[in-house]
Amino acid sequence: MVNYLEVFDNAQQLDLTSYLLLNAREPLYYVSLYGLANLPNVDGRLYIFMSTFFPYFLLGSAVLRLGVALHLERRAILSLLVFLLFFGQLFSLSAHLCRQFLASSLVMVFLVDYSISGRRRWGIGLLGVMMHYSALPLLLLCFVRPLRRFSSGVSVLFHAFVLLSFYALVSKVAPLLLGVPLIGIVFNRLANGEGAQLDALDLTALIFAASMLFMSLLDLIRGGAFVPRVKGWSVLLCIVVVSVAVVLASVQPSLSEIALRYFFYLYFLLGLALAFWMARWLLVRWGVYGLALFALPLFFYKVSHGRWAYAPIQSLLFDPAWSLWAYMKSAYI
User: Structural domain boundaries of the chain?
Assistant: First the structure.
């Protein structure tokens, strides 16, 4: 968040051209930020509030709509929303990866609308992509359709194999595509292994990705007996492809940033997947009830003992939201 506050301060001090030269990637996000920063009587507090509130609102609205379409009980939907609201990993993303957090929420809205209505609202999806380019593969997966003569599970495995083979082919021809505008950055990383060298995903993260993969495949093999008008195939396809990509990318150190970026998408996809799995399996529903019950104490434990520094728990619980600005500014300075 401190880095984003510096970008916000730059927006108030520089002209638009100079500002965009410093922030050339995802220009729509930075143009929006520049416009917000230059409104009268606006400071970083409003930016922090909007960066947190709107993505959570979008994600919560998507999960709520999906739960209603699946005819989940009110307590089941409420439990899932409480769990997601106090899911510590999502909260960390909201504070440190603002662009991806917003893009992920927009993509979840796109996927839920597509699952329910069967229509692809590209305006919402492309808005997410313009906030963070990593969202593009999830949108493209919505073009993939099940194989008519095979089960859903076989279809997903086939498409995952084709996509990964395509990735391997693109990696080979990437040196020839370095000059392509915008996506040349991606090809540069594939060809030269350039990008941030981040810590490898730990065993817990890989187990989480493998569990998401297993549950999605199990769901697909069982045939997806959901409410007839709600189709979860594209959501489960995204989970399978992203999970496999995360595990494979985590093996190669030069792709550690890609592995981590797409691993974060699994946290958002978990909210949609749990709605589908709660509609199918009673055990999952009771599991979410338990997660909701322990969500608040686990959230505050993560805030107190996590790797990032947050305001003291008593301040988070009892102080007005705006008063936390003093703590943020002290950490910023």
Answer: 43-332
